[in-house]
UniProtKB/TrEMBL annotation:
Coiled coil, from the record: 441-468
PANTHER family given in the database record: SMALL CONDUCTANCE CALCIUM-ACTIVATED POTASSIUM CHANNEL (PTHR10153)
Entry protein name: Potassium channel domain-containing protein
Chain intervals with Polar residues compositional bias: 1-22
Highest taxon in the source lineage: Eukaryota
InterPro entries (alphabetical): CaM-bd_dom_sf, K_chnl_Ca-activ_SK, K_chnl_dom
TM annotation in the entry: 72-95, 107-130, 199-219, 260-280, 292-311, 323-343
Gene3D superfamilies reported for this sequence: 1.10.287.70
GO molecular function, one term: small conductance calcium-activated potassium channel activity
Organism: Rotaria magnacalcarata
Location of the Potassium channel domain: 268-346
Length: 485
């Protein structure tokens, strides 16, 4: 058997050997091409996996930094509100120090306020460190110094200055003088002869450093931003990035004013009411003088906020006047917003507007039919008088006058109908018609695509039938030629 194989191998012709030698390099080239393609696919897969790993790593780091910023913001809000409460309690004890001795308690409260302020400053620095890293991660910046722009540095400096302001245990007195001496104004309580006179430019040092602490309320806005559903929703964040709409504090405030307008205005108005009332009381404080009560300060806030000003109470210091001007300005703005919200609440809904317009249309149609019937009636009566030859009679003038009045009435009714048609079309209707048109166009496009596919299949079948007919014709020709032979 082995000899036979050897003999067969020896008997192979040279052409076969040459063909085998030629196929060897072809196979080698094909295998090398396959290996190169596999290596290329592996490199692409490796790059894709590395890209996915980098994206997942960045998303994890972003989530960690976001949670850290949110936690630090919550702690800052708690520490800042604690400092404000301690400041208010300390100033109230200072206001009552004429009757009681609270020096030790005031000292402890101011020391606690200072400690909370120092802690707040440290937390603010740490927060901006994480916030800057988060900004660099979101914008693919390699170094944090690139993200530290001049605007961001100014915002950080302003925030540190706001967090650093707090009262110390000393007193500050400023007296404004004129040509005749010091500027003096009577007490803020009208028709009270027993009250002492007040200096117009006086402000207590603790009050001057305590009122700016209310600027720390911006921390509430930051907490609201981090805990908002709009910011935490990943889908909405992606959609906003694609449409280049930044979801920031302004967007969140507009969002809550859109969905909860009354609740948002009530919360803001309540905070403003208590803060403004206490600010009036603090600005009107002078040692040894009858101090305004908190209830009177609340009444002064109300009459200033509503821009009524009965005159029974009025601020008697520059500080109180500035607070009054600011409250009056905020009151005007909030009143306008409240009126807009009430108007939106009192508007008809879409379906209520449809029903209302339908009822008005029926009433106007009835009035139009009635006016048209009267026009026809008086026109026929006038024609009959003309046929009788009574051209200058009093009855003809009366009928002609009524005819013209009903013509004018009919014209005004038709104008009302046109105005009603215009008011029926609001901002919702074009959007609905646009959506309906888009749906119809999409359906028509799908039908055209299906029709094109059917035509392509029909064309293929026609080609196949043509081929079959040609083959049958050739077969018949062959049979005919055989029969002829």
């Amino acid at each position: 058997m082995i000899l036979n194989l050897a003999s067969l191998s020896q008997d192979t012709p040279p052409s076969v050997e040459l063909s085998q030698k030629e196929t060897l390099p072809v196979r080698d080239s094909q295998s090398s091409l396959q290996q190169e393609q596999q290596q290329h696919h592996q490199k692409r897969r490796h790059k894709r996996n590395a890209c996915f790993v980098d994206v997942s790593r960045r998303l994890i780091n972003r989530k960690i930094l976001y949670n850290q910023c949110s936690t630090i913001s919550d702690i800052m809000c708690f520490v800042g509100m604690t400092g404000i409460i301690l400041m208010v309690i300390g100033n109230e004890l200072i206001f009552a120090a004429n009757k009681h001795n609270y020096l030790r308690i005031i000292f402890v409260l101011k020391l606690a306020t200072t400690i909370s302020t120092m802690l707040l400053i440290v937390l603010a620095v740490v927060y901006h460190y994480y916030a800057l890293n988060l900004y660099c991660l979101n914008n693919s910046l390699g170094d944090w110094r690139i993200g530290l722009t001049l605007k961001r540095a100014a915002i950080i400096a302003l925030e540190l200055m706001i967090c650093a302001i707090h009262p110390f245990s000393r007193q500050f007195l400023v007296i404004g003088r004129s040509d005749s001496g010091s500027t003096i104004l009577n007490t803020s309580i009208a028709n009270n002869d027993e009250a002492a006179k007040k200096l117009l430019s006086y402000i207590h040092f603790d009050v001057a450093l305590g009122l700016p602490m209310f600027f720390r309320l911006y921390l509430f806005g930051r907490v609201l931003l981090f805990h908002s559903r709009v910011v935490r929703d990943v889908t909405l964040q992606s959609f906003s990035h694609f449409n280049r709409v930044p979801i920031d504090f302004t967007f969140v405030i507009k969002y809550y004013l859109q969905i909860w307008p009354t609740r948002s205005l009530m919360i803001f108005g309540t905070f403003l009411f208590f803060i403004g009332s206490w600010s009036f009381r603090a600005c009107e404080y002078q040692p040894g003088v009858n101090h305004i009560s908190f209830l009177d300060a609340m009444w002064l806030f109300i009459i200033t906020f509503t821009t009524v000003g009965y005159g029974d109470f009025s601020p008697s210091t520059y500080c109180g006047r500035n607070i009054a001007a600011l409250i009056a300005l905020i009151g005007i703005i909030l009143s306008a917003i409240l009126i807009a919200v009430l108007l939106r609440k009192l508007e008809f809904s879409r379906w209520e507007q449809y029903v209302h317009n339908f009822v008005l249309n029926i009433e106007i149609s009835k009035a139009n039919n009635y006016a048209s019937a009267n026009i026809i009636k008086y026109a026929i009566a006038l024609f009959c008088l003309k046929q009788r030859g009574r051209y200058s009679s009093f009855e003809r003038l009366r009928i002609q006058k009524k005819l013209f009045s009903w013509i004018k009435t009919n014209q005004s009714i038709r104008q009302q109908q046109r105005n009603l048609i215009d008011t029926c079309v609001d901002r919702v209707e074009p959007s609905c018609s646009h959506a309906l048109t888009n749906a119809i166009n999409e359906r028509t496009t799908q039908q055209c695509v299906l029709m094109q596919e059917k035509m392509d299949r029909l064309e293929k079948r026609l080609v196949e039938m043509n081929g079959m007919m040609e083959s049958i014709q050739n077969f018949l020709n062959i049979l005919l030629t055989k029969d002829i032979k």
